[in-house]
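Re: that chain you flagged

S.,

Sorry for the slow reply, it's been a week of failed gels. I finally had a moment to sit down with the sequence you sent. For the record, here it is as I used it:
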Amino acid sequence: MKSDGKLEISGYVNAIDRYSKELYGSKGKFIEKVAPTVFQRALEKARNVDMLLNHDVRRKLASIEEGTLALKEDNIGIHAKAVISDTEVIEEAKCGNLKGWSFGFRALSDSWQDDGSVAKRTLDDIDLMEVSLLTIEPAYIATSVQVRSEDVEQRCIRDKPDKKESEMEVENERSLVATKVWLLKNVLFS
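Prediction finished late last night. Pasting the structure tokens below so you have them in one place:
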């Protein structure tokens, strides 16, 4: 925690040249990786990239435009550093409930290989729409989240979720679906 009550979060949104977990799309089951320099080129083209919570456009946490988000690609992957003030996300961080990162994009160029087991997709060029901090499991396992603290150690133990928390999880899932539908209608098919 910073002295102003904000939280600094950093980590790798995605590691380049490493495959995702199995995904499902119009071509069926596949795994996916991002080629080197794809994120760097996407960042050079982007006017702004927002940081969201769980891909929910209603939960903007930071942005490049506002100076609260920095993104860069290095030899490992795309690294994010953000300062956030959302109290719910700060509480999730304190409780250790942040699971990783993800990114929203539009594929401009990709290549496919099919070796008979599972199709393999390589993203060769993308428009980077957003990066998301996740409280759900990421599609790529090579993500990391670090919460920076100024010499303060904090521990949090979560009790079994009560009925209200379970209802909130259902609402969060509905929100995620609504966001995906919005992205499909307004970004992918526009």
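What I noticed first: Strands lie at 7-15, 23-25, 28-34, 50-53, 56-63, 69-73, 77-84, 100-114, 119-134, 146-148.

Talk soon,
D.
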